[in-house]
Amino acid sequence: MGKIIILNGSPRAPKSNSRRYAEIFVQHCSCENEYFNILKTNHHELCSRLSGFTDLLFVFPLYADGIPVTLLNFLKTLEQNPPRNKPVVSILINCGFLEYRQNDTAVKMIELFCKQNGYRLGSVLKIGSGESILDTPFRLLAVRQIKKLSASITKAKYRVLQTTMPLTPNMFVKASTSYWINYGKKNGITKEQMESMEIES
Amino acid sequence: MAMKLILSDRPFHIPIKNVDSIKFIDLSSLEIANCVGCFGCWTKTPGKCVIRDDAVKIYPDIAKSDTLLYISRLKYGGYDTVMKTMLERAIPVQQAFLRILNGEIHHVQREVVPKKATIIAYGAMDREERDVFEHLVERNAYNMNFESYQVIFSEESQLEETVKNEVKKWEKS
Ligand SMILES: Cc1cc2nc3c(=O)[nH]c(=O)nc-3n(C[C@H](O)[C@H](O)[C@H](O)COP(=O)(O)O)c2cc1C
Predict the structure, then answer these.
(1) Whole-angstrom Cα distance, residue B76 to residue A112?
(2) Nearest by Cα to B91 from A29, A62, A56, A147
(3) Least CB–CB distance from A105: residue in B35, B88, B132
(4) Could you report the per-residue pLDDT of B62-72, keeping only the tens digit for each?
(5) pTM of the predicted model over 0.95
(6) Is ipTM beyond 0.85?
(7) Residues A128, A62 share a domain
(8) Which of A41, A113, A163, B49 sits 20 to 30 Å CA-CA off B22?
(9) Whether residue B111 has pLDDT greater than 80
(10) For position A149, which CATH number holds?
(11) Are B97 and B108 in contact (CB under 8 A)?
């Protein structure tokens, strides 16, 4: 039976959507696993732990069409401090936009890291509408794919999965507009203020 | 007047003639922390990042410029840390609200001038890495208001020459 280490590469890891996705993964994972947030201060500690695991699952958001700096910097440290036994690397990525395909470039970046550093790429789950899907009835769709991700890693039958809200782009724009208006309201900020065209003035 | 902006992840000695309209910024000499994903720039202080370091001087310049030159080392097919950190910190130039562009979802931009962008990337290991980077810039174009763009791959040893050649083109135009 394998053993999975889950590393969260979101810069807001403790409060991140990635963390919630990882928690769902853990709930449905039948093999031994451990979860860590990637911090600026724990790169070396995490690198030295990796040898004890058959699988590594990176959970992270799409940032500016690529991998977030938090994860990039960890990969660079890992490149310098490779474990003796290299785990298979799987990916659970989520992006804010509706289309899960917008995650593709970031997935390719991890693939490239794997190639350049001699890791096998395992499963990939790409989630679109990842900022909000867990708080809608479509949560079920995400949970279903995370279960499949977990089963695929556990059985070492690696595969590529994806999910998003089944909405048209127009519907998604409307739904997200209310989402962000509410977000602003909690901070005492109106829609009009959020729509300001000004930058730093 | 719209501005021409050069953002670089390392210092250069480039003689720039039109100093009034061309601004050169060496990001590696600045204090720029990474974005923490708080969405303050969208929902608390719209258009302003809550982290008050050097990045807050840079994204207004990005927004104002109509011609951009980014110079960055590549890592895993993307921008290396210095440039990527700045690009992540530039999201105050967008609103939280979304729109449809090219049939896909993207953010509404604040006052961001459409841009002609040139990206000089150095340190690519192979063809595959260059391909990934080209995909990345194609995606960036939609989110960063590039009306046109060009990616130039340079050997690190040729970098200064490559940069000078591009800047010369600007001086002529
Ligand atoms: C700096 C920054 C850049 C982002 N860039 C993108 C992007 O290019 N495409 C996208 O779909 N979502 C983008 N997002 C949205 C996040 O991917 C989304 O909010 C995600 O759910 C965050 O996950 P997390 O809570 O695990 O960090 C960005 C968010 C931030 C803060």
Answers:
(1) 6
(2) A62
(3) B132
(4) 999 999 999 99
(5) yes
(6) yes
(7) yes
(8) B49
(9) yes
(10) 3.40.50.360
(11) yes
